[in-house]
Amino acid sequence: MMSDVRLSAAPPSLCEVTASPTGCGFHGNEPPAFVLPPRNVRVSLGGDARLEGKVRGQPEPQVTWYRDGKAVIGGGRCSVERGGRGTFSLLVGGVTEEDLGCYTCQATNEAGSRQVTVEILLEGTSPYFTHISGSKTILSCMSSSSAMENRTSIWSESPPKFISKPSRVLVRLGQSGKFSTKATGRPQPQVTWYKGEAELQSSGRISVFELSGRHFLEIKEVQAEDAGSYTCSVTNSAGAATASAELIVQ
């Protein structure tokens, strides 16, 4: 067993599955979304591997890790941890060859479910890739470093970029004001709205939603204190971008 621990982040999983929401829009429920998705980890045999991320949703999502279709239960060399503000992790200590491979993280609440699959890799090997054959999606784990180089560029990461930024909104007292934006990136960026440093979520007069690939922030029955600068943040594992616009109350 090696005494030194060497960890390095590898590209995120190429397999991410989103289940259809079951209660989105009712009673303020929000389906799970990975704010910081887990990433692949490279480790030497005998080292420690930590898969970690951050999720949000309403109610707070339950996070479960799976290996070969079975739930991973903390104990022995495995530790399943849950921190504050949606953070979570799976720690595998003293990694052996049997620990290498794919792990699926599933976040679930009343509004829906979301999964992301990542991999614990041995130093010097490459992550699995996905390809589609007929109606089946096939996952393959590759051990050859050259195979990574042969992957097509469609699987590469790209940081978020605004296709259209939110624009200034003028609205009268009591009416509704709406910002909209559209962004691209790989993986698909997570979109978050802020007023100042306060994150905005659907509640009361505030509605945050997506429609036909565009993201919206709507403020209903606008009041004088709603005036000010609003910021849209788009984030994925490759980077982040922000854009701001003013709400002017007349």
Automatic annotation (TrEMBL):
Q: Where in the cell is it found?
A: Cytoplasm
Q: Which SUPFAM superfamilies match?
A: Immunoglobulin (SSF48726)
Q: Which residues form the signal peptide?
A: none
Q: Does the keyword Signal apply?
A: yes
Looking up Pfam families in the UniProt record yields: I-set (PF07679)
Assigned GO CC terms: cytoplasm; plasma membrane
Q: Which keywords has UniProt assigned to this entry?
A: ATP-binding, Cytoplasm, Disulfide bond, Immunoglobulin domain, Nucleotide-binding, Repeat, Signal
The Ig-like domain covers 32-117, 160-248
The record ties this protein, via PROSITE patterns, to: IG_LIKE (PS50835)
Q: What is its main location?
A: cytoplasm
- Coiled-coil annotated residue ranges, if any: none
- What top-level branch of life does the organism fall under? Eukaryota
GO molecular function terms attached to this record: ATP binding
The record's listing under Gene3D superfamilies reads: Immunoglobulins
Entry's Gene Ontology BP terms: homophilic cell adhesion via plasma membrane adhesion molecules
Q: Which family does the record claim for this protein?
A: Belongs to the protein kinase superfamily. CAMK Ser/Thr protein kinase family.
Identify this protein by name: Ig-like domain-containing protein
Please name the source species.
Answer: Poecilia formosa
Q: What is the lineage of its organism?
A: Eukaryota, Metazoa, Chordata, Craniata, Vertebrata
